[in-house]
Amino acid sequence: MKAVVYNEYAPDDNYAKILKVQDIDDPKPKSDEVVFKVKAAALNYNDIWGMRGQPVPVPLPHVSGSDAAGDVIAVGEDVKNIKVGDRVVSHSNMSCRVCKACTDGREFDCVNRIIWGFQTGPTWGAFQEVTHLPEVNVAKIPEGVSYDEAAAASMTLLTSWHMLVGRAKITPGQTVLIMGGGSGVGSFGIQIAKLYNCDVIATASPDKLDKCLELGADFAVDHRKEDWHKEVRAITKELAKKKDEAPGIDVSFDHIGETHWNKQLTLLKYGATLVSCGATTGYNAQTDLRHVFFKGTNILGSTQGTKAELEQGLYWMGQGKIKAAIDSTYTFEQAAEAHTKMLTGKGLFGKILMKPEGA
């Protein structure tokens, strides 16, 4: 079968030099695994980290891709709940399932966890015509949700759901700030907050503001402006008059990091929460601790989530309450172009997909 393979790293981000469509062996399921034909796969930033060989040197030769959706074509003898013909999507958080964290329902805190398609291999990921996963690492796709939508949702919907519902524990009526609303996680963050009947302020670059509003954001602010936080503050003051409460943000949803960190802290109400899943602009954020201890601020880290949380998000997709924002679709042969677009982010809104020929 065909797969997008690289045999060396590209620290200079020259993807065309290393990414090749090659033949690899068809997978055969282990006793607890399912094998499925890939109909759609989605890109994530960890695919770029893998090709750079840092911060984690991934196994070579390597097949990337942590999000895949498709049709089951074989199952191992110990598989209980998945059968041939089922439509499934990957749950890429591979944990040990037996440690204290896992048995406490915190598989995302497992010290032995790895991300499928990023840390697995050689040649085991989403960017191949047929792939395989343990039964516990696939979820059934609900009726009404396409392969494309499921692949686009797999990691980012899970991450956003865990951030807002699992970690921040949002409640109806809160004012929620979604940083980077044009990203994969941001686009889902907007919709999840609206599902919980929150007032949503999204930030994005100027060309993405209208799309954030289309996804359900009540307000959209250009976070490239130096004084973007002042505009957000003004919005919260108007909302506060209607709610008869103090102005400010109840929950700030962050994955931008360094450049916008302190200004988010200034916007939070007393006892409010900032939940972070990443730092695309840098990790060395300066923190004004007065906004932490004096206001009783909750700063929460968040990564991945549980399979149950993925299934909760997929349920609401099946109900039509959450939609996947898909930017563009590429073939395996266009893998270098697809990853370059993700790296630059120019004009990007939502997820980038790749598909094998004929999918």
TrEMBL record:
Enoyl reductase (ER) domain location: 17-354
SUPFAM superfamilies xref list: GroES-like, NAD(P)-binding Rossmann-fold domains
GO molecular function: oxidoreductase activity
SMART domains: PKS_ER (SM00829)
UniProt entry keywords in alphabetical sequence: NADP
UniProt cross-references to Gene3D superfamilies, sorted A to Z: Medium-chain alcohol dehydrogenases, catalytic domain (3.90.180.10), NAD(P)-binding Rossmann-like Domain (3.40.50.720)
Pfam families: ADH_N, ADH_zinc_N
CDD domains reported in the protein's UniProt record: Zn_ADH_like1
PANTHER family, per database record: QUINONE OXIDOREDUCTASE
Protein's name in the database: Zn-dependent oxidoreductase
Higher taxonomy: Archaea, Nitrososphaerota, Nitrososphaeria, Nitrosopumilales, Nitrosopumilaceae
